[in-house]
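Sample entry (337 residues):
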Amino acid sequence: MKSRRTAVSLLYEGTDISADISAFLLSITYTDNAHGKADDITIILQDKKELWRGGWMPQKGATINVSFKTKNWRAVGDEKILPCGSFSIDEITLSGPPGVVEIKAISIPGKSSLQNEKKNRSWENISLSGIAGDIAKNNRVELLYDAVDSLYERRDQRDESDLAFLQRLCEEAGCLLKVTDEKVVIFEEQAYEQKDAALVIKSELSYVERYSFSSSLVDIFAKCTVKYYDSVKKEEQTYTYTVPDAEEGQTLVINKRVESLAEAMDLAQKELRKKNKKQATSSITLGGDPRIVAGINVEFSGWGHFDGKYFIDKAVHSYQQGGYLTALEAHRVLEGY
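Predicted structure, serialized as tokens:
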């Protein structure tokens, strides 16, 4: 049987330097986040000849593109590619002995003010996609929007970075926000959780290295109560949403009044999702698998009570001389709301 092989492709400012760094590469780690953080790459190189601290040292702000490639991985002829995207170098560290250079890069373009510059701005009579489009355009990145749009009479950005402000709006709307490959991506978590599992991970698989599952009742709620204004009765009303098939449990009270029953129903479900999605979680490390990326669903089988469909919150792909591994963090999808 032909041997399994993994290779990493690396472009620096558009030039393929994969062969040039192969003799120096100790490890490369790619972290893919579904929400809350930019994707990042960490490259560690041995520097015994003191090349990387001198003329070969990359420039901060330079662009690198990384891909993982596997061949004969699960079977002869099984070839897969994981394109990690484009990253901007933001930190370079030299340590030793022996001499080692660590290069860190993030998926936010180096010249962008998306993350670090605090701003003040107001929008009126606009949608979430409209605000996101303005921010993406001003930061010279592309917007990919895949969610039901939210409409606003007014929204204020107050002493916040564009990324922090947009993330706050997305969380209020029940959406996830990620920055990857020079793109701002906004998608609806509930809709993505309803998609089919992309693959099944079974407990008996030989390439499962480590696993951990957790089930918790801490900060988990069965109901949510929201106040709203009834325009017909001309008075304040209270609406309570109960999780389908929920046993008796805590009630989450939201101290925010909305203007209709429909808004109250929507807010109650979104707030419960935020609290309850960590009710069952998993962390698994297995032999490298380019199919595993943040934002997809996987099915766990053979894990007893923890079997079911899970949404991947984070995937970490790491390659070193000892091989290629993938680690994932996931939460069980919420059914019915």
